Amino acid sequence: MKLAILGSGKIVSELLSFIHEIESIEIVALIGRIQSKNKIETIAKNHHIKKFYYDYDEALLDCEIDFIYVALPNHLHYEYAKKALLMKKNVICEKPFTSNKKQLVELISIAKKNSLFLFEAITNQYLPNYLKIKEIIDKIGKIKIVEANYSQYSSRYDEFKKGNILPAFDKKCSGGALMDLGVYNLHFIVGLFGLPESSNYYPNVEKNIDTSGVAILQYPSFKCTCINAKDCEAPSHISIQADEGCIYVNSSSHICSKVLLIFNNGIKEIFHLNNLKHRMYYEFVSFENMFANNMLEECYKYLKQSENIMELLDELNNSYL
């Protein structure tokens, strides 16, 4: 896989911290704004990236590039992913995939029409610990209560309170706690149980944006609470409670660092299978494997879940707007 990175933010630095460990992925280009010229060229030099572009259309003409990794603010995902797909480039797009389901459905249609790969970079779906939860969840009996709490005080919240509205807290930029942190909780839950029968979102709203909130998901036989907060902080965790035991994750839904299987009789099992690698490592290994083996149908299965998540996000956002 020959990958071009579109963007130069924090997530790009995280990607570049480990991507060299995957020998079959080569970063061949960095794409950014001319206003970020010094930053782009410094990143390229430090990570031995041989090409950098300030014109996206020019980059899309580069025949060496297999994939575009879209690492831009949320509201730009649709526009830039669509451009890449129309130029017959495969796409990895940061979460949330798009601003709404309609946009994503269009991207999926273009990808399928052209037999292209299109991935949402959502870490938890590929983590060994998360896959282990899928294996063991039947052991705890009938599910009763599920809770996912991802609370992380945002460094941008202080600026927000001063009136400096950055994309993370800008409704026009598809910002807010639900779209940023909540999407991980939703992927975690829907990946295990599918879409709920109904859902509602109860946010704390400041300056027309949800800075934190609670989503209630109603399933046929259990209730689920998803908490996402950028204006306050507490230890993030997930608990899945059932009549024979529980599964407890002592981290946020995007890391899933340690899993405890606890039975009613007190017996415990502990899993920490993905502790040795960066959380993003596993998704990029999976993307490369699907691409190398032309596993389009497997890719499209993941796209179906992303479509379900965008449907749920639309429903939750509309429940309070």
- Assembly status: single chain
Q: Report the major sheet.
A: 8 strands, mixed
What fraction of residues sit in β-strands?
Answer: 25-35%
Low-confidence stretches: none
Quick one: overall form? globular
The share of residues in helices is 25-40%
What is the CA-CA span between the terminal residues? 41 Å
- Class per helix and strand makeup: alpha/beta
Instruction: Tell how many strands the DSSP assignment holds.
Output: 14
Note the topology:
Layout: E1 2-6, H1 10-16, E2 26-31, H2 37-46, E3 51-53, H3 56-59, E4 67-70, H4 77-86, E5 90-94, H5 101-113, E6 118-121, H6 128-136, E7 143-151, H7 155-162, H8 177-193, E8 198-206, E9 209-218, E10 223-229, E11 237-242, E12 245-249, E13 259-263, E14 268-271, H9 281-292, H10 296-318
Parallel strand pairs: 1-2, 1-4, 2-3, 4-5, 5-6, 7-10
Antiparallel strand pairs: 7-11, 8-9, 9-10, 11-12, 12-13, 13-14
Helix pairs in contact: 4-5, 5-10, 8-10
Summarize the structure.
The protein has helices spanning 10-16, 37-46, 56-59, 77-86, 101-113, 128-136, 155-162, 177-193, 281-292, 296-318, and strands at residues 2-6, 26-31, 51-53, 67-70, 90-94, 118-121, 143-151, 198-206, 209-218, 223-229, 237-242, 245-249, 259-263, 268-271. With 321 residues, it is an alpha/beta fold.
